[in-house]
TrEMBL record:
InterPro entries in alphabetical order: Ribosome_Biogenesis_Reg, Urb2/Npa2_C
Species whose genome carries this gene: Sphaerosporella brunnea
Pfam families: Urb2
Superkingdom to which the source organism belongs: Eukaryota
GO terms classed as biological process: ribosome biogenesis
Record's protein name: Urb2/Npa2 family-domain-containing protein
Domain Nucleolar 27S pre-rRNA processing Urb2/Npa2 C-terminal intervals: 1064-1283
GO cellular component, one term: nucleolus
């Protein structure tokens, strides 16, 4: 709505103006422009004395009294509060104190904050509104220091201010839920309002009650937000600790009591927690643990540690908040949410290192853990685990005599799981702490005797938990006695766990000396039908293998039995270990039986899930093969060759069968594990046996590879049904290191792969390429060049062929190799000549000829091939030109062949240029119809780049490269630049200079896209320094002009791409081509960087992160300081301005600003689209600042002079005279803006250099013009800087 002062209706009288503004018919927001015009008007046509005081009274009254939607809109409008702030700055403090006393500012704020909380979308514009309200309250508080009457207007009833605080906290939560930050100034303003309302109020109980009623729920909801700011979190926790869990609340003192005799009580605390009862139970499960944590920590601040009585009181009070949740009745509580809340509260005890009494914990377990439930799924093991972590004595407390028995019974009924395993581990730890490990062993035996197979007492998890504590908790005599007792009772599970835990040699020797282990072996032999007894024998074998020699015959019998699979599994391991650790012949024969049994069983086995308890006929072979391959590979080397071959062949045959379902181990996985194990290649016999089996698996191609001449003419037919098997075998062979293959094996594999490739199985080509990395002179491909044509029947054999030729070239003096190379040339030449007769050339023929020509060209002076090679090249180019000219569509591969072949000599340039012109025409025609082929476009550009020489040619190439990049939309950009780079590198200095000048003139004269920047970067990178003075002068003129144009365009960049490449070009000129830099451009560079980083900098569109943009600026500055420092002396004021600007950017931009507040950051760094700078940018700035203050030796040395310490000191003194404003800027921003802690830490490293170069006297001069707050900041910086230097603050 326009201002009334700007309408045609004359309002010359004061009464007319006031009447118009006081009209309740018009909403306040519609009158605000008129009021603003009146406030800012300097016209003398209207006599209105003390207009600002009247406007202040009018605005506050209308804001407070207007009702309805219009009033709410005004109170929640940022403009109204900003106008109020401006009026407060212009009106005398005494006058606006009276205005606020009449109308009240606190009720107005309360009304506004409630309306914001009740809005449907409180986040819309709320940041600006809260900025305005916070600024108004800050202005009033600042004025109250001089005008005491203002303080009275800011003080309201605690109920009102508590309501404001509670509503504000609710708004903060809504903002955080939407990912919006909360400004610390808002928090300070509202918290100060609350603090002021209770100042001098001695009734702490009433204050706590008011705060709890209005704020506790909102504070708890806000504290659980994961993205809450640290400062806000600290403030809220302190308030909760003060008003809810304060000392006078937990320790209420009556008139007849002394403070020291008071015990903790929940009488005062329970009413304060009552507001939480209104919350949902699910939310209470989140709130209560946090409040419990805050309460315990608040008590630790008053004591070294919260005592048991205090924790009990807090725990009981918090439980009372949850409906129906208490510890008194003995009836178990089946509520899932109640149990979860209890568990989360107990977890806080672990985090804080506190505890509840054993009696309380016992009641908790009895009521909520459901240990006596017959349904094992109902037991809350998470709760049991938490209680065990707090205090194991809970289960031994006399108040619940049978709790320990209930725990063990529940464990017996439980199904094995990770949770139950952790509980078992804690139970073991509890008995260890109670020094009653024998007692646990007795309980373990009882459960084993009473339980069933598969329960947790028979699990490996319990054995793993028990084993580490054996020698720490039992003496050697106790171990011997326990082993002997368990042997008598045949408790193999516990014995196995004990033997797992033996680590000390002393214990093992004592067991051997007393004969305890020998007695265990005798008992285990008598119980040979128990697989756990055999597992125990494996443990004993790791201690003393000699003891197991008498049971070899028993083990062999079990392995051969073929029925007791679990027993056979461990009996096999006994035999394998004996054969590995002893020289006993019978043991070796037994190991051979094991290997044979594994081979025979593999054909019957399908898969195994890894569980020893369910090994059967269908999984025994896989399990035994995994044991041999995974831990006993050496046994395959030790057994006779026939047994080894039988095992390897069976394993491969099983691997080629049907693959097992996901999650199960099968023979294919075992075979893959075998070829990938490094240990395999330490056993020559095993390695060769496996490789031979893999080669034999490629039948029928293996069987015919002996006569390659006839086999290549009539190769075996490739059966698609065997594709999977062949791929598996080839992938296994490819895992073999080349040095692990004999040369004959490699050559055999190459011949087989050739037959497979010729038959249509090209999967072998990567393997062929790998093997040809080393010489294979006897392979068929290296002896008969005719087969190369068959190899190229399917295009794509280039890399293999190149490696073949490289190895033949190494021994080209060999007569056979000479004949091979000559025959290869003749064969290709014949193929090319045959095309005249209409036979045509296939894609493979073209590829083979291209490789042959390009590889042989390095030996073009060799008399034996020179003539034929040159004829072949010319013929090849003619055929390619004819083909490319006749085809309607562009053949990208043929273009590539032509370009690389033509570039070998670069002759017949006119014909090549004609072809390039036709190719460009075809490409443009295709683009005009919307047909865009990246390969064709890139290769067309490659041909055009290859023939370009003159300035006009290169300009056309540049235009083509830019258009291609735009058309392909960034695809194949690296290839485009590679072709363009090859052209620019060939140019002489005058041509390059002229091309650069023309590109810049045409580029900056019109609006071009970002695609020109990267080709232009290529031009800059390839600048060459002329040798003659005339040429040098001409180059400096051109490239200094280029530099100047870059500097002009930098602050007006439109995209991040252009911005970054612009700075890279400038940096390249400064670093690599410093001879092109003139003084004017050096000064302008610093100014351009400052403009790019100032609030009037460019608005960039792209997804490049802001750190990259910032570092591009600091990199240019670093180049100036490192390489051109002697040229900027006397211009340090430019550097200081740039450093101040760059430093300001490291501070977090404000989300919202007043209209009158000047922006500090450039558009490319403003939220919400661009994130603020991180520690990476801070580190880059600190390095630049350190370089400026403490120049390296290379930067202050003048040309042809030696560095002296006086020169460096002189430079530091010059910097010290000018660097003070940087320190002032840092301090000012610290006081006014926000900065990340990690960012400030990195910036501080640079500020330390500023302090160092300033010295004490310099710092005094800088701080002399600072405020008291700023001097306090500098004092802290100087104190930190002076640590270790003996400096006095």
């Amino acid at each position: 709505m326009p201002s009334l002062l700007q309408t045609d209706v004359p309002l010359q009288k004061t009464s007319s103006i006031t009447k118009a503004l006081r009209s309740r018919d018009a909403p306040l927001l519609s009158l605000l422009p008129t009021a603003r015009d009146l406030y800012s008007s300097t016209s003398t046509s209207v006599f209105f004395p003390r207009r600002n005081e009247w406007l202040l009274e009018w605005l506050v009254q209308r804001l407070k009294e207007d009702d309805g939607p219009a009033g709410r809109a005004a109170r929640t409008s940022r403009d109204c509060w900003e106008f109020l702030l401006e009026l407060l700055h212009t009106v005398d403090a005494g006058i606006f104190a009276a205005t606020l006393k009449r109308h009240g500012i606190v009720p107005l704020v309360a009304k506004m904050i409630e309306e914001v909380r009740g809005a449907e979308s409180p986040e819309d514009g709320v940041a600006g509104l809260l900025d305005g309200v916070a600024a108004v309250l800050a202005r009033l508080r600042e004025t109250a220091k001089q005008e005491s009457s203002i303080s009275a207007s800011l003080k309201a009833a605690p109920e009102v201010c508590a309501g404001i605080l509670g509503a504000f906290l609710a708004i903060c939560r809504q903002l955080l839920e939407r990912g919006l930050p909360v400004d610390h100034r808002w928090v300070d303003a509202v918290v100060n309002l609350w603090r002021g309302s209770i100042w001098g109020n001695a009734n702490s109980r009433k204050i706590s009650a008011v705060w709890s009623e209005k704020c506790l729920g909102a504070a708890a909801a806000l504290l659980v937000m994961p993205n809450i700011m640290d400062s806000l979190e600290t403030t809220l926790k302190n308030m909760v600790a003060e008003y809810v869990f304060g000392t006078e609340i937990l320790f209420p003192v009556t008139a007849v009591q002394k403070q020291s005799s008071v015990k903790p009580s929940t009488k005062e605390l329970l009413p304060l927690l009552a507001p939480l009862k209104l919350e949902d139970t699910a939310m209470l499960g989140t709130y209560l643990p946090l409040l419990f944590h805050v309460a315990i920590k608040s008590q630790e601040r008053k004591r070294s540690k919260a005592d048991l009585a205090v924790v009990e009181a807090l725990f009981t009070a918090l439980l009372s908040v949850v409906p129906g949740l208490d510890l008194e009745p003995e009836v178990p509580n089946a509520s899932a949410s109640g149990g979860d809340i209890i568990a989360s509260l107990l977890q806080v005890l672990i985090e804080t290192g506190t505890a509840l009494s054993s009696a309380t914990l016992s009641r908790i377990v009895t009521k909520f853990a459901h240990l006596v439930s017959k349904d094992a799924a109902l037991v809350r093991w998470s709760l049991v685990q938490t209680v065990l972590e707090i205090d194991f004595d809970t289960f031994l407390h006399p108040s619940v005599t049978d709790l320990n028995a209930q725990l063990f019974s529940a464990l017996a009924r439980a199904k094995p799981s990770d949770q139950v395993s952790r509980v078992l581990g804690l139970v073991v730890d509890g008995f260890v702490k109670a020094r009653d490990v024998p007692g646990f062993v007795e309980r373990w035996k009882e459960q084993l005797n009473a339980g069933d197979e598969g329960d947790v007492w028979r699990s490996d998890a319990l054995a793993r938990a028990f084993a580490p504590i054996v020698e720490d908790s039992l003496t050697t005599p106790q171990v011997v006695k326990t082993v002997d007792n368990l042997r008598v009772q045949k408790q193999w599970i516990i014995l196995d766990a004990i033997l797992r835990g033996l680590r000390r040699e002393e214990t093992e020797l004592r067991l051997l000396a007393t004969g305890a282990l020998a007695a265990v072996i005798d008992s285990a032999r008598s119980d040979g039908n128990n697989w756990r007894a055999w597992r125990l024998l494996v443990r004993i074998g790791s201690i003393s293998p000699q003891l197991l020699l008498p049971i070899v015959e028993d083990a062999v019998r079990v392995v051969k039995g073929g029925k007791k699979w679990k027993e056979a599994m461990f009996a096999s391991e006994v035999l394998i270990r004996l054969s590995e650790d002893t020289d006993d012949e019978e043991a070796l024969k037994g190991a051979q039986v094991v290997v044979d049994t594994a081979a025979e069983s593999l054909s019957k086995s399908k898969a195994w899930d890894g569980k020893i308890t369910i090994i059967d006929k269908k999984s025994f072979g896989i399990a035994l093969a995994m044991a041999i391959v995974g831990g006993h590979l050496g046994i395959l080397e030790k057994v006779e060759g026939s047994h080894r071959k039988k095992f390897v062949d069976s394993l491969l045959s099983a691997a080629l069968a049907v693959e097992a379902p996901s999650g199960l181990a099968d023979a294919r996985q075992v075979c893959q594990a075998l070829v990938t194990r490094a240990e395999l290649y330490e056993y020559p016999a095993v390695k060769e046996a496996l490789l031979s089996a893999l080669i034999l698996g490629l039948a029928p191609f293996y069987s015919v590879s002996g006569d390659m001449s006839s086999a290549i003419k009539n190769p075996p037919r490739f059966d698609p049904e065997n594709k999977d098997s062949y791929e598996f075998i080839v992938s296994c062979i490819q895992q073999y290191p080349l040095e692990a293959m004999r040369r004959t094996s490699r050559e055999k594999i190459l011949d087989i792969c050739l037959l497979l490739d010729v038959s249509g199985f090209s999967y072998v080509r990567p393997l062929m390429y790998k093997i040809w990395k080393v010489g294979n002179g006897a392979s068929f491909m290296a002896t008969d060049c005719r087969v190369i044509k068959r190899l190229f029947a399917v295009p794509g054999a280039t890399n293999i062929f190149r490696r073949i030729l490289n190895h033949i070239f190494l021994n080209r003096e060999n007569e056979k190799n000479k004949a091979y190379l000559k025959e290869l040339i003749e064969m290709n030449h014949k193929i090319l000549k045959g095309s005249k007769k209409g036979e045509g050339l296939s894609a493979g023929d073209l590829e083979m000829a291209w490789v042959t020509i390009t590889e042989f060209w390095k030996f073009k002076n060799d008399e034996s091939i020179a003539g034929d090679l040159e004829k072949m090249r010319k013929k090849y180019l003619q055929l390619l030109m004819k083909s490319l000219d006749s085809e309607k569509q562009i053949n990208a591969k043929a273009l590539n062949y032509f370009r690389e072949t033509w570039e070998l000599e670069r002759d017949d340039r006119e014909d090549a240029k004609a072809l390039a012109a036709k190719v460009v025409g075809k490409t443009a025609a295709a683009w005009s119809t919307g047909v865009v082929d990246a390969d064709s476009a890139v290769e067309s550009l490659g041909v055009v780049c290859a023939v370009a020489e003159s300035v006009e040619d290169v300009m056309n190439v540049t235009a083509f490269a830019v258009v291609a990049a735009e058309t392909l939309k960034g695809e194949r950009q690296a290839d485009i630049l590679r072709h363009y780079q090859s052209t620019i590198e060939r140019l002489d200095i005058p041509t390059h200079r002229e091309v650069t000048r023309r590109v810049v003139d045409s580029w900056f004269s019109e609006d071009v896209g970002d695609n020109i920047w990267e080709p232009f970067m290529v031009l800059i990178n390839n600048i060459k320094k002329p040798e003659t003075p005339e040429e040098l002068s001409a180059s400096v003129d051109v490239f200094s002009a280029v530099h100047s144009r870059l500097l002009i365009s930098l602050p007006s960049s439109r995209s991040s791409t252009s911005f970054l490449i612009n700075t890279k070009c400038i940096n390249t000129l400064l670093r690599s081509h410093s001879w092109t830099i003139i003084q004017h451009n050096l000064d302008t560079t610093i100014s351009a960087l400052t403009l790019a980083a100032c609030p009037h900098g460019p608005s960039l569109t792209s997804s490049v992160d802001t750190d990259t943009l910032y570092i591009s600026l600091t990199s240019v500055l670093s180049s100036i300081l490192s390489l051109h420092r002697h040229r900027i002396r006397g211009r340090y004021h430019l550097i200081i301005t740039l450093l101040q600007t760059l430093l300001t950017l490291l501070f977090t931009p404000k989300l919202s600003r007043r209209k009158t507040e000047r922006a500090l950051h450039p558009p490319w760094l403003l939220p919400p689209n661009n994130p603020h700078l991180t520690v990476t940018s801070a580190r880059a700035f600190a390095r630049v600042l350190q370089t400026f203050c403490d120049p390296p030796v290379s930067t202050v040395r003048t040309h042809n002079s030696e560095l002296t310490e006086s020169e460096r000191s002189k430079e530091r003194k010059m910097v010290g005279n000018v660097v003070g404003p940087v320190l002032e800027c840092f301090v000012k921003r610290v006081l006014e803006e926000r900065i990340d802690v990690a960012v400030r830490r990195e910036v501080g490293l640079g500020v330390e250099k500023v302090l160092e170069v300033l010295g004490r006297d310099g710092v005094k001069k800088v701080t002399a013009r600072m405020s008291a707050e700023a001097r306090a900041v500098v004092r802290g910086l100087w104190a930190e800087f002076g640590k270790g230097r003996g400096e006095r603050v």
